[in-house]
Amino acid sequence: FFFFLMIRRPPRSTQSRSSAASDVYKRQIYYCTLIKFTWNYPKSQRKSTVQYRNHRKELYLHKLKLSSFEPLDKANERRKCPKCDRSKKLYCPYCYVSLVDTSLIPQLTLPLHVSVLQHPKEKVERSSIIPAKVLAPSSLDIYRMASLPAIHLDPNDTLFLYPTETAKAIKDVDRDLLKNAKHLLMIDSTWAQVQTFLKLPEVKKLTAVKISAAETTFWRYQQVDSTNLATVEALYFFFKEYDEAMNGSEYDGKYDNLLYFYTYNYNIIQERYINEKK
Fold first, then answer.
1. Tally of CB atoms within 10 A around 62
2. Which of 146, 167, 174, 177 could disulfide-link 208, Cβ–Cβ 3.0 to 4.6 Å?
């Protein structure tokens, strides 16, 4: 069975702690917005197949320079994770292990080391950032805890990707700070949970940065602005804008494969939707 998942924004005065939204960057534009999931998807708000096909051609995903999906297409059977023995298909979201031969899929080295603070109550199966760890294992760490892990956060070389009220556009960040930056801090949690991290003194000292508005391709329906991004999308757009700011030239696609698994899953889900509409 295939279900459509609707995301509905409740009144701002009812910030429910039971929200299941896992990517805080879906609130990139609506800084004070809470999102929660429900299984009701209104037919009146679905795009027709023709509308979807026309819209799809304009999405940024279809302009990315991605490695071949052939290794993923050939991975027809589920495999057991060598670390936890769970049965998964492409990768284990608990151990961050690829179940596809890593020599056949892209492996990235990022210019900044990325630390993701993920609340322990988050459901890893729903997190969009985990595939990025599989693709850039030496450049990205995920810490599942409600307090700051034992990592060094130097305000002189660490950027905090989060749309606070004082966050600066990447192009407006002090040139010396951008040049000397070695680390990037991100948060992967619900709106209610994110406050735990924002209150940390070490986090408050960091320079917060934000990305420019971009249209999301997140496949779960959202009754909010289309510029609310999934966490992995935010990471991709950060490095795209970071590269442009550092090099002073047009981005050449070197970090597109951060969205390798994301794009593959997107294509499968949307093609399934189109086939069901026929």
1. 13
2. 167
**Paired tokens of 241:** 């804008």
> If pLDDT is split at 50, 70 and 90, which confidence band does 167 have?
very high
Sign of CA dihedral 255, 257, 261, 267: positive
More confident residue, 108 or 16: 108
Contacting residues for 215 by C-beta, under 8 A, at least 6 apart: 59, 60, 226, 227
CA atoms within 13 A on the CB side of 191: 23
CA angle 87–188–220, rounded 5-degree value: 70
Comparing CA positions, the residue from 183, 137, 144 lying closest to residue 160 is 183
- Phi, psi of 115, deg, nearest 5: -115, 120
- CA dihedral sign of residues 40, 129, 67, 247: positive
**pLDDT digits 0-9 by tens, 51-75:** 444 444 457 888 899 999 999 999 9
Instruction: Assess contact for 193 and 122: CB atoms under 8 A.
Output: yes
Residue with tokens 């010396």: 176
- Neighbouring CB atoms inside 10 A of 43's CB total 6
- Give the span between the Cα atoms of 86 and 79, in whole angstroms: 8
Token output for 114: 């990325």
Q: Which residues are bridge partners to 207 per DSSP?
A: 159
> With the C-alpha atoms ordered 190, 133, 248, 226, is the resulting torsion angle positive or negative?
negative
